[in-house]
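Aim 2, interim progress. The first record below pairs a target sequence with its structure tokens.
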Amino acid sequence: MSNVTGDIMASPVIDEVRQMQRRKRTIRKLASDASPWLATLGFFLIWELGCRLLNVPEFILPTPSASIAALIEFRDGIWLNASHTLLTTLIGFGLAVLFGAALGIVVGGSPMLYRALNPLLIGFNSIPKVAMVPILVLWFGIGTVPAVLTAFLVAFFPITVNVATGIVTMEPELRDVLRSLGASKADILLRVGLPRSMPYFFASLKIAITLAFVGAVISETVASNVGIGYLMMTASATFRVPLVFASLLVIAAMGVAMYAVAASLEWRYAGWATRGGAG
């Protein structure tokens, strides 16, 4: 009888503890979800207050409010150039995904080929891509093509290396077991190697998309008459510094948006590889 009474008295206590734990989890989740927004707002607040308290001249470092005002004032021109930069970046990034993944599969499927081509890939990636822009201009002229190719060249290497690494680092014991079961090299590559490389592939997309923006903007500052890079160069030449920073904010926003898309794809298709992932 006493045990039953104790259980009845303990039940409300247990429920209260569980409710407190649920509330704590909810608060932690809300804080985690809000932390990027709070950090961003804090950054802009410190920037704004720092410029105002230190009386920093606008032609050196404009305040966020001045940059946003320039963004609103020149929104038509910024939108035109930003859309062009986004288009060239996506084209170059798409080509990098296509050819980078294909080369990564070929290289990763052969350990000997991986060892043979790895120094060439590293050497190619070590070349500053800004040094390639004059060569691309010499070959293709000033315009959109150099920006697309620069975005492609910058984003190509991370995708190739990550896909190849995901395939070539398959455990030798797993290969031996699959071969003993009658699996061919093609079967091992397609049924085990490719799925195993997916986390590497989607992780490389987050790196490659941001690098593609860097490549496109670098090319536009040197060899284009349209795009965010070109807009920044013309604005800095006329000392319209708030417009320069407004362009930087637009580039940052586009980069964050594309990174979020790549991260969502990683969670959707390769979340099983991480703790708490999808699937």
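The second target in this work package is listed in the same format:
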Amino acid sequence: MATGKIYEGLVARKKQGKSAFAVLVDPDKVIPDDMHRFAELCNNAGVDYLLMGGSLLMAHQLDICIERFKAESDIPVILFPGNPAQVTPCADALLYLSLISGRNPELLIGQHVASAPMVKSSGLEVISTGYIIVDGGVPTSVSYMSHSLPIPANKADIALCTAWAGELQGKHIIYMDSGSGARIPISEEMIHTVSTNVSIPLFVGGGIHTPEKVYANCKAGATVVVVGNAIERDPMLIRDLAQASKQVTSI
């Protein structure tokens, strides 16, 4: 499948050793009327991407949140779906997640078969994503919903072999995630091991709360660092976190 300009930009960053910063927003945890102000914060901070999605989406306000954000910002909006129902043409692109670290066939391919007609007709730029869950010290929604164990935090070799499998299967990117509210963020050693041994972009998220950790992850080789929980608690952190990602120009 042909890729689009968002993915081409990610590939360019990977080749140039540059990093980007993405904010993850769960539409269940925001007020749609606040998205205008949130967009202004992201614009002023230099955020590169907005990821939208959640494990359940109980409030049914995904579309309106995206529309209100895009009314104030040109930052690309990328869907980070917890299930096939979270596909909307309001966004710019879709991370088509396949849980390659798990053993649940539904999240490896089953839900993709069910969602394929909707995704094909959506007009979205589709970015095939090898999704890897790493142990963050607390149970995650993904592990619970998928009945899958995460990769141990100290097993960089397993993470690398899993990432290689995804790359060899033709995934466009690898996304390593220790989950929302992780106590133990993914180590720089694991990030460096994976990033330096795969040719595709690497997203890293989970348990990232400080500019120092953003910088360390970028320095270790993350193409995109994703922060969600910390910004939910304090949106004013966005500027410092985004600027930390700009300090690293090469691995």
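Residues 154 and 190 are 8 Å apart (CA to CA). This observation will shape the mutagenesis plan for the next reporting period.
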